[in-house]
Design brief:
single chain, 111 residues, alpha+beta, 3-stranded antiparallel sheet, two-stranded antiparallel ribbon, 5 strands, 38% helix, binds zinc ion
Length: 111
């Protein structure tokens, strides 16, 4: 059973993920490429615009699972913290939210 709150939260994170996917696309065009790219924190705070810096391979790893997100340390998330990295945390949406997050994953279609 997916609660309205869970759905809203997952949709919020998916919105930031879409913005970050555009940042990733723009980054591919850069010459020379950046070492660490400023992405937007994907926490539960809808007003959050905190930049978090990930390398391209780090970002790709987070995006590898449609239910994982990268957030700034100390920012709100109902997800479970999977990893504490340098300057960001990798969180995984729990059950219901994870399903919504995976359903909204723009990369899921080509899987
Ligand atoms: Zn945040």
């Amino acid at each position: 059973m997916i609660s309205g709150d869970e759905k809203k939260r997952a949709e919020n994170e998916a919105t930031f993920r879409d913005a970050n996917e555009r940042i990733r696309e723009a980054e591919r065009e850069l010459e020379p490429p950046l070492d660490r790219i400023p992405y937007i924190c994907e926490c539960d705070d809808i007003g959050c615009r905190e930049p978090i810096r990930l390398t391209a391979p780090e970002y790709e790893r987070v995006r590898g699972d449609g239910a994982t997100f990268a957030i700034a340390p100390g920012h709100p998330s109902e997800g479970d913290v999977l990893e504490q990295r340098d300057g960001y945390l990798v969180v995984q949406e729990p059950d219901g939210g994870g399903e919504v997050a995976r359903a909204l994953d723009p990369r899921a279609e080509d899987a």
